[in-house]
Every structure is written in C-alpha cells, then in structure tokens.
Amino acid sequence: MTDIEIANSITPSHIKEVASKLDIPEDELEFYGKFKAKLPLNLINENKIKQSNLILVTAITPTPAGEGKTTTTIGLVDALNKTGNKTTAVIREPSLGPVFGIKGGAAGGGWSQVIPMEDINLHFTGDFHAIEKANNLLAALIDNNIQSKTRSQNIDPRKVLWKRAMDMNDRALRNTVVALGGMAGGLPRETGFNITAASEIMAILCQSKGLQDLKDRFSKIYIGDRFDGTPVFAGDLNAQGAMATLMKDAIKPNLAQTLEHNPAIIHGGPFANIAQGTNSILATKMGMSLSDFVVTEGGFGSDLGAEKFFNIKCREAELSPKVVVLVATIRALKYHGGKALSELTQEDLSALEKGFENLAGHIESLQSFGVPIVVSINAFSSDTEAEKQSLLQYCKNLGIPAALSYGWAKGGSGCLDLAELVINAAAHSGSTFHKTYEDEDPILTKIEKVAKTIYGASHVTLSNQAQSKLKRFENLGYGKLPVCIAKTQKSFSDNEKLLGRPKNFELHIRDFEIAAGAGFVIPIAGDILRMPGLPATPAAESIDIDSEGTITGLS
Length: 555
What we know:
There is one protein chain. Helix content is 35%, strand content 17%. By secondary structure, the protein is of the alpha/beta class. The strands form six sheets. Strands 1, 2, 3, 4, 5, 6, 13, 14, 15, 16, 17 and 18 form a twelve-stranded mixed β-sheet that branches. Strands 19-20-21 form a three-stranded mixed β-sheet. A two-stranded parallel ribbon has the order 7-10. The longest helix is centred in the N-terminal third of the chain and has 21 residues, at 127-147.
C-alpha cells in the first residue's frame, strides 16, 4: 500500500476525542472540520512545561535514499503512548513546494503518519497562506512608499532586501523585475520571490512567544536602506499591525492525530538549510504543557536542524531536550560509504563500514551539547541481518544505545525498543544543554565555533562582501544575535559533493543576511537558494483526483 492508501484505510477519530487525551475541553477548540482544530495560546502553562520531557529527533547527513525523521518521530510517539506515557508529536507543517516537487510531504510514512494526510499536505488550516499574505503585504507597502510623494521614507530601490513569497517551487521567480508599465505601475526595480517556508515571516512565527511579540518582531524587520544609507524597518512603514492582523489565526498551533489516534501538534515550517528548521516555540511549549513527553524534530541532518534547535530555538525559548534521537539508515550509510544509489539494496558490509564515519561525526557533534543520544536505525526490508548486526555492534562499541526501528512497517509496535531506550535516557538526563557559543561572542567567533565543533572545519574564511556586510550588521547592533548558518544539507561542509565525514576543510562565507525580526544573523556558505526549482519529473505529474474527490499520488 502507498502512504496515502494506508492513511485512507484508517478512520480518523473526531478531533475532540484526540483533544480529550490531553485534557483539553471541547469549548477550547477552534474546529476546522471534524479532524483538525486550532488550539488557543492560553493552554500554554510554563509550570507544567518544566515537568515534561522534550525529545529531539534528528538524523545523519541526508541522502537521496532518505532517512525517515518524521516517520521515526510519529512511530516513537505511538510507542511511548503504548508504554503509558502521555505523549504528543510536535512537528512542522509541509510546504507545497516539496509536496509537488521531489521530496514529498511531511506527514510521515507507512504506518507512522499523521492524518488527515491530504489536508496536512494540502493547505491544512491556511497558515502558509497567511504567512505568504503578510510577507507580500509588506512588499506592497514598500513599493507603495517608493512611489509616494507625500509620505516617502526615501527608500533606495536598489537597496531593498525584502522579496515577495509564494509557496511553490518556481525557479522562474527567483529574479524578477516589478513595476513595469509606465509611471502608474511604480518605479521599476529588480527583486524576486522566496518560497514561503524561506520567508522571514515564517522564521518569526516560529520564534514568537505570542501575538504582541509577533507584532513587535514584524516591526524590526530590516527591509533595506534609504538614499542616505540609513536602514529602513517595517515599523517605519507602520506595517506591523496589519501584518499581525493577517496572522491572528496562523499563530495558533494546529491539532491533528497519528494513525493510532494519538495527538499531533503541527505548526510552522521553516527550512533548516536557510532558517532554524523547527516548529514554533508556541507549539513545542503547548505540547509540553499538555504531555509527559513531547517528540519533535529538526530539519535535515544534525549539523543543521539540531544545531539550530539548540543554539537558536532553545536559547530563545529557554528549553532543553532530555534526549536526542539520531536517525540513521543502512542504505544512507552505504551511500556515504561510496555505494551507488542504484545499488543500495544490495548487501555491502564494506561500504556500510566506510559510511560509519558519517554517523560518528554526527554523534560527536551532538555530544558537544551534553544531552544523551539514542540511535534509531530506521529499518528497511532490503537491510540484511549481517548489516543490522554490524551497525548495532558499531553503536555498542561507541557506547551509544541503539535500536532497530520499524515504524514504517508496524507503527508504534515497531518502535517499542526505541521507546524503552528513550525513556531510560530521559530518566538519567541532566537539566540543561551546553551551548556551542555565548551571546557575547563576536559573530565571527560564533561561526568558527559552529564550523569547528559541529561541522569539523579547520577554519572559516569570509569574502570581501561578507566582511563588509558583517561590519555593517555589527555597527547596527546585531552582534549579539545567534548565527543561523545557511549551507548545503548534503554534507557537513559547504560542498555537497563531500560525502561521509570530511575533516579539516575550509568553510567559506560568501555573504551575510539579517533576520532582525526573527532574531538571528545569517552567514551564507555556498550557493543556497530561497526559491527551489522543480525536478525534471515533478511529483505533481503523479498527483490526481477523481470525480469522487479521491486523491492519489501524494506521499
């Protein structure tokens, strides 16, 4: 059965029944049909948060073979509930770009999914649309001010940094020219589009602590410069009130369910190669207010999602995970060991052992945070017994508990061994994690500490443009912000061709951006695109709907 066939084979519980497992009264729910609901922010209880166990799921370096973080997350949630621990999944919302592109949705897979799968992957409760509209309202206000003769901020059109957004993979919109058609159309200038998940509005939503904080952060958005070189912020255009108004419902986390009818809170979805890559602080805190355990995830490998989860999200939210679950697959490790993608289903202990270096790199970087690690081996039918035993023995030799995970094939019952390891690790975990850098460290020092401690780089170099931008941002007072390094997800390094565990390489920062509203500086390593393109054969070509409304092809 395909993922969507499995999802459709299960009749969802009414969302009020799922909410009752978290002791949420029915009158607190804002229903979006029978199977989805918005949760009010008053359910967040800081005192209860302190008693909850936060579990972070991350992974080794991603490969085309896939690792299955969300599948592991959902399977672990169902398994923990089977052991009698009230547990909630708190995950990100899917972007339509990957859904119709190549990666697919973000609702898990097999028998470890969240449902209603079609709704979650297609529009859901409209949060992404609200983010897109808030983003584009600011863009419209900027061009309107450039055109204005009476209320002008003297914005230099050549220095506008803010772009429009659309939640679709459309490479043709990366670089555009707006305001054509004569004087009535405004002042022509070059600009472009970001995919909605890459918008600073998305990053701000996931960093915000409430509606007022959201509005305050909107006002701090750095949109460009005036002709005299002074910075212009969204607050200078009085944009924050209207933008926050568009977000009045989107700021509320969404409640859905797993295939086993356990609660799943789904909210926000920034990409981890260009932003913090985790769900919202509000959603995480809400889950921890209502559950004994919360299982969440960070995007891509631990060098991106987990690093930013600790150093950006947890720093801002004052949270600390009790356990990190590191997802690995035998297929992916063989790929890092040099085996061709087309041959990964063949047994190859030599390639597997060569790939262990990538796993070791992630374990060592995660150990720097001082949080217990459990390895989840996401098992596939092509994995041989010899390969499984080899990987389990390798983890044992490192002193890292590991378990085979069969969430895709068996749901929660396939993750019970993993759940027991997580419960035991949480019981012996410390109270807080170790940061990679301190707030007072200069920005370059912060980058160097991440590059050396997490990536394994020997040193960091900055282009002339990067040095100039860094000096400007520090002069503007942004020197104490965390760093959100944008780099490829395909390697520890900034070169996606360096698989396995590259060492002693140079991390080259070619440019800097600022997300002043979200609260971090963005050093850019390599060529990172904020608007992806579609592959030669996009998933959209296989997605269809019949006359009865039955959808096929979603994954």
